[in-house]
Design a protein that fits this description.
This protein is α+β, with helices and mostly antiparallel strands and about 290 residues long. It folds into two domains: about 1-70, no CATH class; about 80-290, Alpha-Beta Complex (Fumarylacetoacetate hydrolase, domain 2), CATH 3.90.850.10. Helices cover about 15% and strands about 35% of the residues. The chain is built from eight helices and 19 strands. The protein has helices at about 25-30, 40-45, 45-55, 90-95, 170-175, 180-185, 200, 230-240, and strands at about 1-10, 10-20, 20-25, 65, 70, 80-85, 105-110, 115, 125, 130-135, 135-140, 160-165, 170, 190-195, 210-215, 215-220, 250, 270-275, 280-290. The strands form three sheets. Strands 1, 2, 3, 4, 5, 6, 7, 8, 11, 12, 14 and 17 form a twelve-stranded mixed sheet that branches. It is globular.
Length: about 290
């Protein structure tokens, strides 16, 4: 199933996407969902509500995709975490175009909640930097509260998947050994266009991913090429912290980022970035200057 969060007539609603139509789940599920975090509520209660949602797949649409503004499926996740240097070709090109060896350990950083952005909303290029870059990525959404998850059971705690872009401001990223500031500018964590449930995706390590800038394909990979697959990522994270329903994991990018070109090809005002993953859809953003 494809689940979305959308805005229509100034109201935020939860929806079930079927073709080009949307069934309003906020209305259909009534008091089962809070107005504050309906997607997180739905994920947390999925075992109880999934049959009711599935029964709506043949229901008439309440609206269409063209009539709404799609928001990030989880507009305000409790945690948004991202792994760096997780495809060998990206390690080899590195973020500064120099040779680099595979890190001995998984490299993690947060993308703060104010960076979360809708799948078709503009990417704001900050006034303090001319080095904004794109990173097309598969995004995993956690489905249940969990800690110390063994890798062989990690698939049990994933609710679904989205398309993401780990937008990065390279000069701020490289200022210190901690990447948080360079990865957390406003609007720099778009994902969507909807959340595809894990049962519909199957193996998340069997997906083709591409990223285009102004129609030119800059990135192209297959998720089987991750150095640390999603199960290893979850096992590592849950050694440290409790993951909760709706938490977001950006799972890494491949080669072809703008910083690796000679000269670098950073995003400019008016550029359009499209990230597409098979079976999950695509997100598209136009780059605008900060006002």
């Amino acid at each position: 199933m494809h689940l979305c969060t959308y805005e229509l007539d100034g109201r935020t609603q939860l929806g079930l996407v079927h073709g080009s139509g949307i069934v309003n789940l906020s209305r259909a599920l009534g008091d089962a969902l809070s107005a504050h975090q309906p997607m997180i509520d739905l994920i947390a209660q999925w075992d109880r509500l999934k049959d009711r949602v599935a029964a709506l797949l043949d229901a008439p649409a309440d609206t269409t995709l063209d009539a709404v503004r799609l928001l990030a499926p989880v507009p305000r996740p409790g945690k948004a975490l991202a792994i760096g240097l997780n495809y060998l070709d990206h390690v080899q090109e590195s973020i500064i175009g120099e040779s680099r060896t595979v890190p001995a350990h998984q490299v993690w950083f947060p993308k703060l909640a104010s960076a979360i952005n809708g799948p078709f909303d503009p990417i704001v290029l900050p006034r303090v930097s001319g080095m904004t870059d794109y990173e097309g990525e598969l995004v995993a959404i956690i489905g249940q509260r969990c800690r110390h998850v063994p890798r062989e059971r990690a698939s049990e705690v994933v609710f679904g998947y989205c398309v993401g872009n780990d937008v990065s401001v390279r000069d701020y990223q490289k200022r210190t050994s901690q990447w948080t500031l360079g990865k957390s500018f406003d609007t720099h964590a778009p994902f969507g266009p909807w959340l595809t449930t894990a049962d519909e995706v199957g193996d998340p390590h069997a997906l083709e991913l591409s990223c285009w800038v102004n129609g030119e394909r800059r990135q192209h990979t297959h998720t089987r090429l991750m150095i640390h697959n999603i199960w290893d990522q979850i096992a590592q994270l849950t050694e440290v912290m409790t993951l909760e329903p709706g938490d977001v994991i950006f799972t890494g990018t491949c080669s072809g980022v703008g910083a690796a070109f000679d000269p670098p090809r950073f995003l400019k005002e008016g550029d359009t970035v499209r990230v597409e993953i098979e079976r999950l859809g695509a997100i598209v953003a136009r780059c605008v200057a900060e006002g």
